[in-house]
């Protein structure tokens, strides 16, 4: 678990299970379908029921739980899940909380959301070029190693997040 910005941490499932889960005062983005989204909604089939009101995003107290798989194709990264995660992180950081964004391994989905957060809400990484921002971010968060879908999503949407007001 690495602090990439004051009170904003990126990590993996073990960071959550072994540390954060047992401490009071954390806000958490579970950026992975397995096991958190499945457990929160209680489905046993391959995927969540598409008509479920929390199909993409579930909220349980101080936890935001995303139905986010580490897809190879950026088309399968739902923008609304990323937007919800960024808004949740920003709201809770602005409220003075500690926030952990984690996925299973801590190198793709959570790391990508962390990079997008820094690009959208801070001056920590360059805003103009995704490749420059990514290079800077690697020095801040060395485990960063997104799969093609997450990286493709970030590359395609970088200017939307960093140049435009949403």
The helix content, as a percent range, equals 40-55%
| Number of structural domains | 1
Strand arrangement, largest sheet?
1-2-6-3-5-4
> For this structure, what is the CATH class?
Alpha Beta
Low-confidence stretches: none
Which sequence of SSEs, written as H and E, runs from N to C?
EEHEHEEHEHHH
Largest sheet: 6 strands, mixed
Calculate the mean pLDDT score and round it: 95
Overall, the morphology is globular
Q: How is the CATH topology named?
A: Protein-Tyrosine Phosphatase, Chain A
**Number of beta-strand segments:** 6
CATH architecture: Alpha-Beta Complex
Which superfamily, in CATH terms, is the homologous superfamily?
A: Protein tyrosine phosphatase superfamily
- Overall SS class: alpha/beta
Give the terminus-to-terminus CA distance: 29 Å
DSSP strand content: 15-25%
Rounded to an integer in angstroms, the radius of gyration calculated over CA atoms is: 15 Å
Topology:
Blueprint (H helix, E strand, L loop, with lengths): L1 E4 L2 E4 L1 H6 L7 E5 L2 H9 L15 E4 L2 E4 L12 H16 L3 E5 L6 H13 L8 H11 L7 H15 L4
Parallel strand pairs: 2-6, 3-5, 3-6
Antiparallel strand pairs: 1-2, 4-5
Helix pairs in contact: 3-4, 4-6
Please describe what this structure looks like.
With 166 residues, the chain is an alpha/beta fold. The protein has a single domain (2-162), classed as Protein-Tyrosine Phosphatase, Chain A. Helix content is 42%, strand content 16%. It has helices spanning 13-18, 33-41, 79-94, 109-121, 130-140, 148-162; strands at residues 2-5, 8-11, 26-30, 57-60, 63-66, 98-102. The protein has a six-stranded mixed sheet, sandwiched between helices. It starts with a strand and ends with a helix. The mean pLDDT is 95.
